[in-house]
Design goal:
Layout (H helix, E strand, L loop, with lengths): L5 H13 L2 H8 L3 H15 L4 E4 L2 E4 L1 H25 L5 E7 L1 H8 L3 H7 L3 E7 L13 E6 L7 E6 L2 E6 L21 E3 L4 H10 L10 E2 L3 H9 L4 E5 L4 H6 L3 E2 L5 E2 L3 E6 L7 H15 L11
Length: 302
């Protein structure tokens, strides 16, 4: 195989972008004649004509246009590779697997803080309703909503959310909270993917005579809260996940009653991964951030 003429290829690439030999010569800090000579050398090497010489510039031939597309991509990749290897700090990737509501309403609002604390780490988040399989998946840390019994995993309790009833201010007269729980029968109930949250909440606060199975099933908690924000009905929300909307007045807390969630939220990883300072540091960061979350109760540690 012939040796690829890198110099002439570079001269051609610059000339193809400028379509002018003088402009190409100025960019490369060489003479007009030098660029012209290298382009001619490449044409002779390939056995094809790459440019049509015009009175005021150049025009690519069909073969020249095809080659220009290839040289542009190749030199772009080369520049990117040179930047990567010349960067003094080696960047690392950390993958967190979590469920969508935690990601959207707790983790994503904290990614700037994450980047400031871990500037050399690229965070990748995977949202799924399935439990992460550390043996089969490229996952460093998983966030789980459950009972906390995860054999073979290092488990860090984050918090146990408290469930409250929320809605858009427009749904209430004057935006004032309701005083009588029985008034719920006058509103549409919004559900995530089941009726369980409403049934459990109504039972816990002792409300009778309201059917927890009526209303709209929205599919998941994010969709349910979007429906609540749009004034479509009353929703059961984890107070920590609705904190920003409540603070901004986009949602209001309908009743003072709160019910601790049936399950808690935990961060888990393989015990051996704690030997990696990056993983250990992020686990500690998640724990510290959970302690600053708005008005939440810690889950049991056992």
């Amino acid at each position: 195989m012939k040796r690829i003429p890198v110099g002439p290829l570079r001269a051609f690439d610059v000339a193809a972008r400028n379509l002018n030999l003088s402009a190409a010569a100025e960019e490369m800090n060489v003479t007009h004649a030098a660029v012209s000579r290298q382009v001619k050398q490449l044409e002779d090497w390939l056995g094809v004509k790459l440019f049509e010489r015009l009175p005021r510039g150049l025009r690519l031939t069909a073969q020249g246009a095809l080659l220009a597309e290839g040289t542009r991509a190749a030199f772009d990749r080369l520049a990117s590779a040179l930047e990567d290897v010349s960067t003094p700090t080696v960047r690392r990737k950390l993958t967190i697997s979590t469920f969508s509501s935690f990601n959207a309403r707790w983790l994503m609002p904290r990614v700037q803080a994450f980047s400031m604390l871990f500037p050399d780490v690229d965070l990748q988040v995977i949202t799924t309703s399935q439990l992460a399989d550390f043996a089969r998946e490229d996952v460093d840390i998983a966030i789980r909503f459950g009972g906390g019994n995860y054999p073979g995993l290092h488990t860090v309790p984050l918090f146990r959310p408290r469930e409250i009833v929320v809605c858009a201010p427009s749904l209430l007269k004057g935006g004032a909270p309701l005083k009588n729980l029985s008034e719920l029968r006058n509103f549409t109930l919004l559900h995530d993917d089941s009726y369980r949250s409403w049934a459990r909440w109504l039972d816990a606060v002792g409300v009778k005579g309201i059917n927890p199975r009526r209303g709209i099933v929205c599919g998941d908690r994010n969709s349910m809260l979007q429906a609540a924000l749009a004034g479509q009905g009353m929703a059961i929300a984890s107070e920590v996940f609705a904190a920003s909307e409540l603070a901004a007045g986009r949602l209001v807390k309908v009743f003072e009653q709160e019910v601790s969630s049936e399950y808690a939220i935990y961060a888990v990883c393989l015990p051996r991964r704690l030997n990696d300072p990056m993983v250990a540091g992020v686990m500690e960061w998640l724990e510290q951030e959970s302690k600053t979350s708005h008005d939440v109760h810690p889950p049991p540690s056992d």
